[in-house]
Specification:
With 422 residues, the chain is α/β, with parallel strands linked by helices. It has 15 helices and 13 strands. It starts with a helix and ends with a helix.
């Protein structure tokens, strides 16, 4: 009897074993990388600044290293009257107001060094320093899973000026770029120490009194990820070498990181007038306005529902008029393309482009020269090399006897890229 059911028992045991193996042998979930940009000295995540802070004792062996969250000018670890001190700020936004900026400059003038690295600075700081910043570097263009072009903010690439540093290396990493560039500086009092993508300046030095002020616009160059990538630690060492080696105190500031967080929290917690009214309480601690408001809303809703049931008529469905102009244009374009009349089709596309420029940007298209290209770039925001390609092809149509379908296709792609950006 046992022999009769033995094969079935063995089959059940084997099947159960296979199920257990599959259930227990699943791959562990891949740990997701923490991509938060914190820039805090205690954070060991990719975009924290733990390594940069820990390296300070090796860069300044004779100085006392500390951190601070106090407002500038009211430090416990720095003296406003002493010299040979260094104050380092690394934050996403250097949002110093006018009073804070004046105290920082007074600290510099007394013979101290201040180093600030941030992606953006406050208007007060920019006005006092005499500079302006912006993001002039175009993000990398890539394709997503559906084949659509998307912009990616990554691949930071920076270098230092050979005039002030003994290097011609380019330091880069495949992480977040998160950087800006100077669009205007006072060249009479400013030394340009470094640049980033497309050679735009992102690191400057200003002399004030007996001290120095350094402004750096790529804060992630001090992140753990950047410093651990290849030989990027050399960049950090050379940048920190601008600070006087004779400093006796070095303070790593986190006041502006906390200040930015408080500002964002206050914006999140800000209440509109309606919220304030509904939370008003009387002497008994109750909220009469809130109760009265919701009762009024309920009565109004009942009134609308009963009136709608009694008087409302059937509303006919009105079809929205279709705009067939674009379909007509595409049909005409396909007709020209099928007849291989490529030059005529290109001229029609060029005429439509020029009419678009005249009607939308109020620019004259009589002279397609450099002034026209710069004016169109300013108003549309398109890249200069794209506009030059379009204008060159329009001029090329005036002299060439015929064009092929490849030229038409490339011209169409240029125009589409312009319309999408503009």
């Amino acid at each position: 009897m046992l022999k009769k059911y033995l094969p079935y028992l063995l089959g059940i045991i084997i099947l159960s074993g296979i199920i257990v193996l599959f259930a227990t042998g699943q791959k562990k979930k891949t740990k997701k990388i923490d991509e938060r940009i914190t820039m805090r000295k205690e954070d060991k995540i990719p975009y924290g600044d733990h390594i940069a802070f820990r390296c300070l004792p090796y860069l300044f062996p004779d100085a006392k290293i500390s951190s601070s969250q106090e407002e500038p000018g009211f430090w416990d670890s720095l003296s406003n009257n002493d010299e040979d001190q260094a104050y380092i700020v690394v934050a996403d936004h250097f949002n110093a107001d006018e009073n804070e900026m004046r105290r920082i400059l007074n600290f510099v003038e007394n013979g101290n060094d201040v180093f600030v690295s941030a992606k953006s600075i406050s208007d007060d700081a920019a006005d006092i320093i005499g500079c302006s910043i912006g993001d002039l570097t175009a993000p990398r263009i890539a394709e997503d899973e559906d084949g659509r072009l998307i912009a990616k903010d990554d691949s930071l690439s920076i270098n230092l000026s050979r005039k002030y540093f003994p290097t011609d290396s380019v330091f880069e990493y495949p992480g977040r770029r998160f950087s800006s560039t100077f669009t205007k500086v006072n060249e009479d009092v400013t030394n340009e120490l470094g640049d980033g993508q497309k050679r735009y300046t992102n690191f400057i030095h200003l002399k004030s009194g007996k001290g120095n002020l350094y402004l750096h616009l790529a804060p992630l160059a001090f992140s753990n990820y950047f410093l651990l990538h290849k030989n990027n630690i050399q960049y950090y060492q050379m940048v920190m070498s601008v600070i006087s080696p004779d400093v006796t105190k070095v303070v790593w500031d986190e006041y502006f990181i906390k200040k930015g967080q408080r500002r964002r929290q206050d914006d999140t917690k800000s209440k509109d007038w309606f919220t304030v009214l509904t939370n008003m309480k009387n002497a008994d601690g109750k909220k009469p306005f809130k109760a009265a408001f919701w009762v009024a809303i309920f009565l109004l809703l009942l009134y609308v529902l009963f009136e709608m049931r009694r008087k409302q008529r059937a509303i006919p469905v009105v079809t929205k008029p279709r705009n067939d102009s674009m379909e007509f244009v595409k049909t005409i374009g396909r007709l020209y393309y099928d007849k291989a009349d490529h030059k005529n089709l290109s001229r029609k596309m060029a005429a439509y482009f020029l009419e678009h420029v005249r009607s939308n940007y109020k620019l004259s298209t009589n002279n397609l020269d450099d002034d026209f290209i710069k004016a169109l770039q300013y108003k549309s925001g398109a890249e200069e090399f794209e506009l030059r390609g379009i204008v060159s092809y329009i001029k090329y149509l005036e002299d060439v006897p015929a064009v092929n379908h490849i030229h038409v296709t490339e011209f169409y792609k240029q125009l589409e890229a312009f319309y999408q950006k503009a």
